[in-house]
Design brief:
It is a single chain. The chain is α+β, with helices and mostly antiparallel strands. Helices cover about 40% and strands about 30% of the residues. It is built from three helices and four strands, in the order E-H-E-E-H-E-H. Strand 2 and strand 3 form a beta hairpin. It is globular and about 45 Å long.
């Protein structure tokens, strides 16, 4: 399943991009998460990522690990494609 991650960086890590990203990619791989895209933004979130993961527990484990490392905070939402949305609507 795909998820959208909305992330906020801890100010301490804002200037340590390579170190943070390397550790996050390694942990994601360890958890079986595929990072498909990462975009850095201005506004309430510092980055948005699109990932694939086997289940929401893996995504939550990653978000908790990210917080524990003091990299910042991540919010995750399932990302449904048109087919999945049509299936959901058919169940109404």
């Amino acid at each position: 399943m795909r998820y959208i991650l909305l992330g906020k960086l801890d100010p301490e890590w804002a200037g340590r991009q390579r170190e943070r990203v390397s550790a996050a990619r390694e942990k994601a791989k360890e958890l079986g998460i595929e990072i498909q895209a990462v975009y850095y933004t201005h506004g309430p979130y510092d980055f948005i990522a699109l990932i694939s993961a086997s289940d929401p527990y893996v995504v939550e484990a990653f978000a908790l690990w990210y917080l524990k490392k003091k990299f910042g905070r991540i919010e995750a939402s399932p990302a449904l494609d048109e087919s999945a949305m049509a299936d959901a609507v058919d169940r109404i």
